[in-house]
Structures are given as C-alpha cells and as structure tokens.
C-alpha cells in the first residue's frame, strides 16, 4: 500500500532557504541530486536567507511571490523544499501556490518508495510513509472536518478523518507485527552465523559513495549500482572466502544521508541491524568528494543512532581513479590496517582491501613443524583434509615432516576428534603459535 504519486508533475521548482543555524551550505547540491534521483525535472532553484522560518509559510511573502511566479513561468506543478515543513505550513503553501508541495522528508520517502524491491523493503517504506502521512491526513478531508447531522448525513459516530486515522493505526500495527517477524528471522540467521563463527562484514557509508559497485567487484554479484542517491535500498548478503579466515558474510546496506528522517531510521531498524550486529564495518567514503569529512561525520552519527558505533571500522576511500593516486593501505602505530585507498570501478586496490579485511578478521593461528609417523596415517589425512599442510617431506625412517598452519580453533577441534594430546604430539617438535 504505497502512496502513489500522480503521473506527470515532474516539473519542479526547488526552494532552499539558508538559516543562521544551517551548517551545510553544500546541501543545495545534494538537494538537486535528491530531486534528480526522484525523477523530478528541476525548472528553477530559488534560494534565500531568513533569520527564522515563517510560522505560516516557512518563507516570507516576497519569496512566496517569487515561487508563485516561477511556477507560472515554468508551468510547474510541484514545489520541493529542502527543509522539514510542518503539516500546517505544507497545507498553507499548497493553498497559496495551487500545486503540490513536498518537503525534504517527503522527497526522500518518495525515492525510497521507488527503490524498494523486496517484501521487507516495501514494508519498511510503507511504515515510514504511513507515519509521515498520518499528520497530513486533514489535507484530503478539509470538507469533512466537521460532520453535520441531518438526513443522509448521520455517520457511525466519527468523522471521516477519525476513521482514516483509526485505519492508519491498524495498518501501522499490522506492519510492525510483520517487521517483528522479519527481525526475528534475521536474528535467527545472525545467531546461526555466530554459532558457526562466520564473521559478518557490512558495507556502510554515505549514499552514492560506491558501496554497491564495491560489493559487486568483491563478490561478482549483480546488485543495482548507479550514480544516484539511494540506488540501493534493500540489503544484499553474499558469501566470500578469505585465506586464513574462511567464509565471511558480506552485506550491502542502504546509504546514509545528512538529516536522515528519524522515522526512516526507525522503520529501517531491521535492515540497519545488519550493521549493528556486524563483526567489522567497511565505511566506504567518496575520496573525491569535497564534503568527504562532513559525510564521514554524518555516517558516524547514524551509526551512533543505531548503536553500531562500537563495531570495529575499516575506512575504505573509494573513487581513487578520480584523484589519480596509487592504491595503498594506511596502518596505525601497531601495524593494524585502518584505511584502504582504492577504486571499485577500475578494481585497483581491491587486493589490498581483501588483505586488510583478512588482517582485521584473522583468528589466532597455530603454526608448527610436525613429525607424523607412518602409523599416524589418520592424523596426516585429517591435516590434509583441513588444508593445514603447507609443505611435506619424508625422512629416512619414513616419517612425514609436515609444515602445518591453521586456525587455533581448527587445531583444537582436530586434536579432540583424533583423541590426541597436544603435549605428546609436540614433544619432539618446536611449534609456534602466532597471532597476526
């Protein structure tokens, strides 16, 4: 049950008012990108400054006349505001301008409605739309605000507006129940991965930073990737095998944006939990963006809001091809990778990213030179089946001299399965246990 926009009406007049507490002057360019992503044709961009928003129209009388003139000049029937409007302001503006008015939150919701593909994604978008529209229901029923008595006008004891709000509450409750089931299913899947000790790595970052392109390059998946804001809405999970680590789950998630509506954050909790429950976050950053540092900060704010700020993070600076720099890994004082510079489009630096992920995820390793006697054939076969044997030579007595390297967990499990004592097995060898 989506609130479908009427066909046509893509000719839009955009309005951006700079307020004293506005910290994001570059927000205008992002607003233009949002309008383009929604399918609107920008006919005019009207800008201005105010000390405080007008309680009635958000803008002043003079700016309202300018907007009205732009609508008439360009035959536009949609006005987009780069701000959050109160329901009353939106109604007053529509009455004065005689055309549809949409604020920033409504615009983002419209884009989300276009991008949703999965059952879960559609539910989440519908929930956000319903909660957003519930405060604006009066717009469609102004002639029924006061239901009058009389023959043919006696109703069930509530106005049409009250009926609609009751139906909305019922629908919202139903969606919450369905999403709760989705959360339970996701939680069960995560619990199974934890029990199997399979690491989960989630791609997070500002919208249009190149997460889906990177995801496709790493996994050979065919996730939709485009130069649009919110090209990806539904989460996608793929398996990836890394040396010394084994299988990991890589998740592509919805992009973040500054001033992301709280209703959207609440609605997308089921999806964003993939990030909160991850073993490692790959924070993808558009390295060529002039707002790189601010975008990083906005993503960190959303991560804090969904309680994912304590998950270990590896920065991935993407779009290096636009900077004409060589790929590299940045490390901290202890030698641990903290950032990787690469280009997901050209593939330059992808090997460095995989190496950095491996270093951040690799478990404690067991490494040793083992002497295996001929009668210990079962042990030798188990080591080969585990893929732990790096090299093998035979001495004059027929013993196998094996160079063994595997995770400490696999080594312990092998000893248990073979009913062997580690001290006895290593008595005549010099093992080395390492933790990269």
Automatic annotation (TrEMBL):
Residues 199-365 form the Hflx-type G domain. It comes from the Bacteria. InterPro entries: G_HFLX_dom, GTP-bd, GTP-bd_M, GTPase_HflX, GTPase_HflX_N, GTPase_HflX_N_sf, P-loop_NTPase. SUPFAM superfamilies: P-loop containing nucleoside triphosphate hydrolases. The keyword Glycoprotein does not apply. Keywords: Cytoplasm, GTP-binding, Hydrolase, Magnesium, Metal-binding, Nucleotide-binding. It is found in: Cytoplasm. Its main location: cytoplasm. GTPase that associates with the 50S ribosomal subunit and may have a role during protein synthesis or ribosome biogenesis. NCBIfam families: GTP_HflX, PRK11058.1. Belongs to the TRAFAC class OBG-HflX-like GTPase superfamily. HflX GTPase family. PANTHER family: GTP-BINDING PROTEIN 6-RELATED, GTP-BINDING PROTEIN HFLX. Monomer. Associates with the 50S ribosomal subunit. This is GTPase HflX.
């Amino acid at each position: 049950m989506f609130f479908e926009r009427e066909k046509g009406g893509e000719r839009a007049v955009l309005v951006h008012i700079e307020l004293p507490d506005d910290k994001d002057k570059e927000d205008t360019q992002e607003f233009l990108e949002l309008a383009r992503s929604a399918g609107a044709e920008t006919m005019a961009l009207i800008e201005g400054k105010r000390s405080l928003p007008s309680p009635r129209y958000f803008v002043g009388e003079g700016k309202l006349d300018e907007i009205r003139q732009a609508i008439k000049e360009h035959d536009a029937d949609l006005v987009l505001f780069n701000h959050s409007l109160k329901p009353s302001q939106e109604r007053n503006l529509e009455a004065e301008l005689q055309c549809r008015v949409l604020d920033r939150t409504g615009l983002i919701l419209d884009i989300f409605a276009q991008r949703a593909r999965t059952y879960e994604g559609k539910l989440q978008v519908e929930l956000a739309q319903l909660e957003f529209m519930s405060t604006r229901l009066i717009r469609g029923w102004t002639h029924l605000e006061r239901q009058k008595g009389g023959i043919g006008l006696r109703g069930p004891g509530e106005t049409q507006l009250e009926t609609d709000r009751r139906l909305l509450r019922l629908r919202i409750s139903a969606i919450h129940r369905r999403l709760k089931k989705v959360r339970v299913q996701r939680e069960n899947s995560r619990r199974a991965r934890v029990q199997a000790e399979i690491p989960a790595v989630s791609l997070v970052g500002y919208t249009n930073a190149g997460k889906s392109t990177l995801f496709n390059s790493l996994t050979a998946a065919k996730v939709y990737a485009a130069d649009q804001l919110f090209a990806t809405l539904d989460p996608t999970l793929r398996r990836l095998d890394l040396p010394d680590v084994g299988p990991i789950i890589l998740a592509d998630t919805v992009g973040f944006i500054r001033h992301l509506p709280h209703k959207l954050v609440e609605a997308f909790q089921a999806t964003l939990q993939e990030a909160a429950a991850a073993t490692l976050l790959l924070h993808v950053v558009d390295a060529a963006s002039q707002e790189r540092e601010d975008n990083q900060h906005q993503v960190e704010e959303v991560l804090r809001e969904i309680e994912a700020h304590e998950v270990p993070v590896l920065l991935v600076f993407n779009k290096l091809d636009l900077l004409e720099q060589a790929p590299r890994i940045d490390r901290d004082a202890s030698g641990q990778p903290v950032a990787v510079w690469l280009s997901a489009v050209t593939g330059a630096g992808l090997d460095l990213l995989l190496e950095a992920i491996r270093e951040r995820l690799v478990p404690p390793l067991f490494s040793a030179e083992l002497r295996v006697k001929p009668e210990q054939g079962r042990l030798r076969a188990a080591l080969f089946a585990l893929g732990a044997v790096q090299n093998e030579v035979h001495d004059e007595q027929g013993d196998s001299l094996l160079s063994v390297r595997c995770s400490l967990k696999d080594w312990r499990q092998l000893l248990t399965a073979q009913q062997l004592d580690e001290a006895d097995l290593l008595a005549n060898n010099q093992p080395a246990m390492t933790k990269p």
